[in-house]
Amino acid sequence: MRESQIKRKTNETDIELKLCLDGSGKSEIDTGCGFLNHMLELFARHGRMDLTVKCKGDTEVDYHHTVEDIGIVLGQAFAEAIGEKRGISRYGSVLLPMDEALILASVDISGRAFLNYDVQIPNPSVGGMDTELVEEFFVSFVRNSNITLHIKQLDGKNTHHIIEGIFKAVSRALAKAASIDETLGGEIPSTKGIL
């Protein structure tokens, strides 16, 4: 099983996170932010990852540190769980409809951190969370997982639908990229011999 457990404590957040890439989509999420809880539950379910997140953050200020730091820890956990990347498919792409919203997510587990975030969210907040924090979450995740991630909004008007579509699409693309390709026989999928 490809698993990781990480604890991270700062003056702003105290996080315990467990991740199993080869799970069934179970989750126990308590971030102090209801909307983020919902997005991480979707992330786990649609990526077929088991995910536990417990975070105590300075939410009396706002949700910025909580969202950013969970992105950091989830990225670290993903990098640790994926390991040497032997036998993985490496690439994964999903075009996901969420009612009127249409989101493209494309992943390369490349060992190179890059995020292309092409999204126009109409409302500045949803469920009490600033919508600009969605990008902050994925910036933190990408930097700490060392993946290449493209997120492109092709359509959408409803803020909730757009963000939900992003989390679902990214988790499904990650699941494809992290899946084991039996035809590789445990090889690292790169001509360099390393990712």
Q: Strands, helices and their partners?
A:
Blueprint: E1 3-9, E2 13-20, E3 27-30, H1 34-47, E4 50-57, H2 64-82, E5 91-98, E6 101-108, E7 114-118, E8 125-126, E9 129-130, H3 133-145, E10 148-155, H4 159-178
Parallel strand pairs: 3-4, 7-10
Antiparallel strand pairs: 1-2, 2-4, 5-6, 6-10, 8-9
Helix pairs in contact: 1-4, 2-3
Descriptive overview:
The strands form three sheets. A four-stranded mixed beta sheet has the order 1-2-4-3, covered by helices on one side. It is α+β, with helices and mostly antiparallel strands. It is globular, with a radius of gyration of 16 Å. The chain is built from four helices and ten strands; from the N terminus they run E-E-E-H-E-H-E-E-E-E-E-H-E-H. It has helices spanning about 35-45, 65-80, 135-145, 160-180; strands spanning about 5-10, 15-20, 25-30, 50-55, 90-100, 100-110, 115-120, 125, 130, 150-155.
